[in-house]
Design goal:
The protein has six helices and nine strands. The chain is elongated, with a radius of gyration of 17 Å. Helices cover about 35% and strands about 20% of the residues. The strands form two sheets. A six-stranded mixed beta sheet has the order 2-1-8-9-7-6, covered by helices on one side. The protein has a three-stranded antiparallel beta sheet with strand order 3-4-5. The protein has helices at about 50-60, 65-75, 85-95, 125-140, 160-165, 195-205, and strands at about 5-10, 15, 95-100, 105-110, 120, 140-145, 150, 175-180, 180-185. It is an alpha+beta fold and about 210 residues long.
Length: about 210
Amino acid sequence: MKPDENLSIFGGMMLGGAGGLGAGGLGTTGLGAPGHSTPAANAQPATKTARQARIKALLKATYVRSQSELAELLALDGVQVTQATLSRDLVELGAIRVRGEDGGLVYALRSEGGDPTPKAGVSQEVLDARLAKLCAELLVTAEASGNIVVLRTPPGAANFLALAIDHSVLPAILGTIAGDDTVMVITRDPLGGEAMANRFLELAAMQ
């Protein structure tokens, strides 16, 4: 089984994930890339379904102001698309342009479920603050070996922390696996585990 770039496995080892780590093309942030990160091979199949799923993840994770900007983000993920195809994808996904928090126009998708209100991406600052808050509340220990970081949490809390890591779009992270009280984080850099473990500990101390 080949992992998706945005892999997370929550309680009972169920595959899923909502966007956090597969977006190396979203740019680095203060939390994003301790040490040197080597680019990973694209693990997405070259299908319309996979492409549109990646577009949805990008629009939910960050502000995208134009089709050309979206095409650049997709290209950084190894997804090449023409302007005409991208336009059709946005129409099929029901994407529209709304005012973002900064007043500029950004693409947004209608919420799933009963709420028809379009939702634009959450700002990176909000995602970073949310992760720091959860690290302060839930992180018990952080240890590393090679490119693997093992985070310990109170019983039943690992899923919440893993989801926050996924949503925080950290380019240095390839994926997460969560059980009941343990989160395994895999970094793109083969030797990036120690730096990432220290980063989680720093986040926990910030609050």
